[in-house]
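During the reporting period the student researcher (J.K.) took over the structure-prediction task from the postdoctoral fellow and processed the backlog of single-chain submissions. One of the processed entries is reproduced below for the supervisory committee.
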Amino acid sequence: MNARVLVAGVGNIFLADDSFGPEVIRVLERRLLPPEVRVRDFGIRGLDLAYELLDGYDIAVLVDAAERGHPPGTLSLIEAEVPDGTRAAAPPEAHGMDPAKVLALAAHLGEGPLPRVLVLACEPKDRPDPDEDIVPGLSAPVRDAVGRAAEALHRLVPVLLADPAATPALSRPEESADLSAAGLAVPVAGGAEDR
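J.K. obtained the following structure tokens:
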């Protein structure tokens, strides 16, 4: 039997490159993943995502913008550290989405283990100041990464459906040696990809 997989877009659509996750989900609405995969835009609804993680998935892939020190538009696949629920969870944010806090809350709320969590992250270029209310639109390098991320998910998900413990090869084998230094198969002029 195939695994249950959640692909969750997270981020604020009104804060520039933070809308990367929701934009990738919009692409996936037109280029569907297999029917046993739930694809959903959670935006900044962290509490909703925490409860969804408790719904018996084998693996969850969060799609988000994340600063990792790479050139803007770089995609990274990160294995999240899933908390065990023994520590007190941070209170949920009504209008925020901190994936670490969401995982801690889900672990605290649930009775069993959380699914394995991977994050398909994109290095942002434009991160608005906390004082700014609305900064619409993606920067050019992040906009270009949206399609690459959808393609990466179309390669990743079938592997994860077959084996949720797999670490999918996202690039040429010589670049996939470990979680911290592998690349995606789609070359980017002037950019680097890592996993």
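The committee noted the following: The chain has four helices and five strands.
J.K. will present the remaining backlog at the next meeting.
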